[in-house]
Design goal:
By secondary structure, this protein is mainly β. The chain is built from five helices and 32 strands. Helix 4 (about 390-400) links the parallel strand 22 and strand 23. The radius of gyration is 23 Å and the shape is globular.
Length: about 550
């Protein structure tokens, strides 16, 4: 029997409204053996699943997730892209809004959905455990409303990831000691499988079964630790309709690009002759060749019917690994719907102007390193974030002194030619610190991210917790405060929670600081975040009770 998306949604909602337990989830974090690339190792999972379970909710729902840590290491869970209005207590970043859930302990997290609609994801937010601890979140429209496009016949989460033969904890600990670039992954994955181009992988390759004439909504998540991805399906175009749980004006492409942390919703029309077709994904990077995973992961789109499939299946076009123009052209096409049903609220009068440089830094000046520090550093406004041992939210709420400073600079201490190819080595050195930027409630913020060419620079997917923001501008080179604002899109900019700042370029976002609490902002390349490309916003309470931070839950994990 063929079941439509609306029928599935109806069954789900009917069950939800008649069963209180359906708004409660149980996440048991535990190790489980998994075999990939002819090798078996124990990995950290949720409920023994890799990728983890998909959460299904309706726009505006509130759910509770009981997280049991049955693993051997501390862990936290973050609900990526969920605003968590007034409720940073359940946001999840380790030592920012909570101390970790220790082995043998439990924490009930309250997840408050508000304006999000589309696809988001959840993942561990402690060390690099999100490599295997992650899953999708599907947020359906409210009852009585529908998608702004024709209803698909089926919906499928597609989670892009990375697989290391090496144990992730061992990889992380070696990275802390030796620094530099971590050992690159051994394979990329589609829904946890590397695909049949790899040994010992053919039988387990993910297969998407389709019927000619039907349309499928693919909810694509990039869960990779350190890499952006090109994704395509042979002989099929993809119609992009949403990103980061916000709808977009539809546009068609033969491939998509997606940064770590981002989600993209696409419609796939099964309009080709019945056959097998490869779905494939490979890296986009500005890193020197040889220092990244240059493999390709595959899955197979299988049409139903009686036919003899071609072998090998048709293979899709994927741009070369460093095709920055292809990558940027895709993201620059994003436009919000900006209509009556899906209005936008871009701040036009700005009360708080911020300018943040994002850089890779050297820890050693004149061959002298602080302590035994040998790794590279990364920074925001030349400050490399130092993770505290008491979470910042607790310190802020209870007035615990000495945990963080409130003097994070609004602008870099020095303006220079940020993207020049031959920068003085004195600029490479950052300062260590745990500092937060304080924002007044309901202030309107414009934040310019400026990439630098220090240590040859990089691109950066920057994620902000607690908010979605409008990406109003983007470009290459140095941001020009006198010229570039005239190019801003204030009519239909995309609403995102993760923005890709191009190498040697800039991006401008705007948002209203209407969510009181402590909110993390960081690069979603985990190597850069570990090096210190992180900072914190603290949004002060408003004047009315409904604009103030909620009280902490009774079972917050102890530090």
């Amino acid at each position: 029997m063929k079941v439509s998306t609306s029928q599935l949604l109806g069954f789900f909602l009917l069950f939800l409204y008649h069963c209180e337990a359906c708004s409660y989830y149980k996440f048991v974090v535990k190790e489980a053996p998994y075999t990939r690339l002819c090798n078996t190792k124990n990995i950290l999972t949720v409920n023994g699943q890799f990728p983890g379970p998909t959460i299904y909710v309706q726009k505006g729902d509130i759910i509770f997730v009981d997280v049991y840590n049955r693993g051997s290491y501390n862990v936290t869970i973050h609900w990526h892209g969920v605003r968590q209005l007034r409720n940073p207590w359940s946001d999840g970043p380790e030592y920012i809004t909570q101390c970790p859930i220790q082995p043998g302990e439990k924490f009930r997290q309250k997840i408050i959905f508000t304006t999000e609609e589309g696809t988001l994801w959840w993942h561990a937010h402690s060390q690099w455990s999100r490599a295997t601890v992650h899953g999708a979140m599907v947020i359906y429209p409210k009852m009585g409303t529908s998608y702004p496009f024709s209803e698909p016949d089926a919906e499928i989460p597609i989670i892009l990831g990375q697989w290391w033969k090496q144990d992730i904890v061992t990889l992380y600990e070696a990275f802390l000691v030796y620094g530099g670039v971590e050992n690159h992954s051994d394979a990329y994955t589609i829904n946890g499988q590397p695909g049949d181009l790899f040994a010992c992988s053919k039988q387990e390759t993910f297969r998407l079964k389709v019927e000619r004439g039907l349309t499928y909504l693919l909810r694509i998540v990039n869960s990779c630790l350190v890499d952006s991805i090109f994704f395509s399906i042979a002989n099929h175009n993809l119609t992009v309709v949403g990103s980061d749980a916000s709808y977009l004006k539809p546009f068609e492409r033969s491939f998509i690009t997606i940064a770590p942390g981002q989600t993209i919703d696409v419609l796939l029309e099964a309009n080709q002759s019945p056959n097998h077709y490869y779905m494939a994904a490979s890296v986009y990077t500005v890193t020197v060749k040889g220092l990244f995973d240059n493999t390709t992961t595959t899955a197979i789109v299988e049409y139903s019917g009686n036919y003899t499939p071609s072998w090998p299946p048709a293979f899709p076009f994927l741009p070369v690994y460093n095709d920055s123009r292809a990558y940027d052209n895709f993201t620059e096409t994003f436009r919000s719907l900006a209509n009556k049903e899906h209005p936008i609220h871009v701040p036009t009068e700005i009360s708080t102007h911020l300018f943040y440089t994002i850089s890779i830094n050297s820890p050693c000046k004149n061959n002298r390193c602080p302590g035994n520090l040998k790794t590279l550093l990364a920074s925001v406004n030349n400050i490399s974030f130092v993770t505290p041992t008491i979470d910042i939210l607790q310190a802020y709420y209870y007035g615990i002194l000495g945990v963080f400073g409130t003097d994070f600079p609004s602008f870099p201490s020095l303006f220079y030619d940020f993207t020049a190819p031959d920068l003085p080595t004195d600029l490479e050195f950052s300062k260590l610190g745990t500092k937060a930027k304080i924002l007044d409630y309901n202030s309107t913020v414009e934040l310019v991210f400026q990439g630098t060419y220090l240590l040859q620079g990089s691109d950066h997917p920057i994620h902000l917790h607690g908010f979605s923001f409008y990406v109003v501008g983007m470009g290459l080179g140095n941001f020009d405060k006198d010229k570039d604002p005239s190019t801003y899109n204030l009519v239909d900019p995309p609403l995102q929670n993760t923005v890709h700042v191009p190498k040697n370029g800039w991006a401008t976002i705007r948002f209203r600081a209407d969510n009181p609490g402590v909110w993390f902002m960081h690069c979603h390349f985990d190597r850069h975040a570990t090096w210190g490309m992180d900072t914190v916003f603290i949004v002060k309470n408003g004047k009315s009770p409904e604009t103030k931070l909620l009280q902490p839950p009774p079972d917050m994990p102890p530090c």
